[in-house]
Amino acid sequence: xxxxxxxxxxxxxxxxxxxxxxxxxxxxxxxxxxxxxxxxxxxxxxxxxxxxxxxxxxxxxxxxxxxxxxxxxxxxxxxxxxxxxxxxxxxxxxxxxxxxxxxxxxxxxxxxxxxxxxxxxxxxxxxxxxxxxxxxxxxxxxxxxxxxxxxxxxxxxxxxxxxxxxxxxxxxxxxxxxxxxxxxxxxxxxxxxxxxxxxxxxxxxxxxxxxxxxxxxxxxxxxxxxxxxxxxxxxxxxxxxxxxxxxxxxxxxxxxxxxxxxxxxxxxxxxxxxxxxxxxxxxxxxxxxxxxxxxxxxxxxxxxxxxxxxxxxxxxxxxxxxxxxxxxxxxxxxxxxxxxxxxxxxxx
Length: 348
What we know:
It is a single chain. The chain has 348 residues and is of the alpha/beta class. The protein folds into two domains: 6-158, Rossmann fold, CATH 3.40.50.1970; 161-347, Dehydroquinate synthase-like - alpha domain (Dehydroquinate synthase-like, alpha domain, Up-down Bundle). The protein contains 14 helices and ten strands. It has a six-stranded parallel beta sheet, sandwiched between helices. A two-stranded antiparallel sheet has the order 6-7. A hairpin with a 5-residue loop joins strand 9 (314-319) and strand 10. The chain starts with 5 loop residues before the first strand and ends with a helix. The model has no long low-confidence stretch (mean pLDDT 95). Catalyzes the conversion of 3-deoxy-D-arabino-heptulosonate 7-phosphate (DAHP) to dehydroquinate (DHQ).
């Protein structure tokens, strides 16, 4: 990304300024059915002439089939390599739109306008793009920084409480891996009653940007950002195969945070008191994800496809105390199953 994300009420006007300076040959806007209804109209006054494509909302549409729809649309409207794509949406639109832009004609410029808390604190920052494939989260994708990101916290007013809670899981994660004092401030926070998320967004974005700057392509420290995701993605991926039982990404990450915190405690990296503290913060916001003990084997199997793995080794990020993540921690399938058993029996 050429410039830091613009965060605050000035974001729409800053978006308009960038689009004037970028002078694309053609401007394209991608939204989903929710953001086309709730967010796109608020940006219309700041957008020059453009074409709009609306895709279906939901993780189940984060697929190569939807990418083909986007690529066909760009082709039909004769988008050349000097075109620019503005992605207005949450994690699905951010990831999928960025991937489509990065691969269309070997790459056109892309601008992110994240509209959910999850996208604003995490998905839109760092240049990870991708789609799900054959049931595996973000299995196909590339690293490609957007031209710019514009974060307008007022869009969060359009979200149902469940979507806010989903994004909050990434806020918890950032504090746990990098800022113990910030985690201490999360005790008792009422997600549904926050009047202004701007400071929280700025804090999470700063943590992520600092880590990504050190390691853009995830060969080292960037793996810290995957805390909660090895087991969280396994839970999310499995439940995507169970119609009617799908969970939000952040809900699965919150479960993964508890499982991987428990593994940290099992290795004496995290004290029993710290594990209790983490469970307390998660418990305040997230309900327990329901799965049977008989399903733990099937869920754990998804962890063998985690992108941090090397050969047959499951590489996980754990905690060496609250506020300090440690990456490249080899864990076994048996440990994943044990962590899921802990969550199933005692975590919440």
